[in-house]
Amino acid sequence: MKKFLFQSIIGILFGAFIAVLITNIIYFKGSDLLDGQLFLKNSLACLFCGWFFSVTPLLFEIKTLKLPQQTGLHFVSVAILYFILSFSIGWIPFTLKSVLLFAGLFLLIYTGIWIGFYFYFRNEAKKLNDDLLKI
Q1: Separation of alpha carbons 78 and 86, rounded Å
Q2: From CA 58, how far away is CA 10, in angstroms rounded?
Q3: Contact 54/14 with Cβ under 8 angstroms?
Q4: CA torsion 97→103→105→107, rounded to 10°?
Q5: Among 34, 55, 125, 126, which lies 20 to 30 A Cα-Cα from 83?
Q6: Could you tell me if 13 and 47 are in contact, meaning their C-beta atoms sit under 8 angstroms apart?
Q7: 126: number of Cβ within 10 Å
């Protein structure tokens, strides 16, 4: 529970950082006014997005599940939450072309990040095993 709360706080803070960054880059570039309702909607969405992207990796710590099960559960939960949020906020237009495009992009980015983490942790495990063999 302690780790969940810590991950939640980190995710919310990261989401807030992203919201401020996006606001400064996009909204204030050539615009004198900021739409308060649009800002609030997008900021809350960024906070929620930061929260669930930082909490869902805890699914990989469930030791009773194998890696493919952990990955599948993580992928499905993140994809469902992200696409529901994106469609409801208006980040992704709800057309067949955009749904297919963003689903493909999501899958590519998810796969790239997963492979990166897999090789990183595999390398770390190899280092630890090599150090244990030296002892």
Answers
A1: 12
A2: 13
A3: yes
A4: -150
A5: 34
A6: no
A7: 10
Give 102-123 pLDDT, tens digit per residue.
999 999 999 999 999 999 999 9
Q: Rounded CA gap, 77 and 79, in Å?
A: 6
End-to-end Cα distance, the chain: 35
For 46, the 3-state DSSP assignment is helix
Indicate the pLDDT class of residue 135, thresholds 50, 70 and 90.
confident
Cα 30 to Cα 27, 34, 42, 51, 119: the distances in Å are 8, 11, 19, 31, 43
Contacts 24+ apart (CB under 8 A), 61-65: none
pTM of the model: 0.80
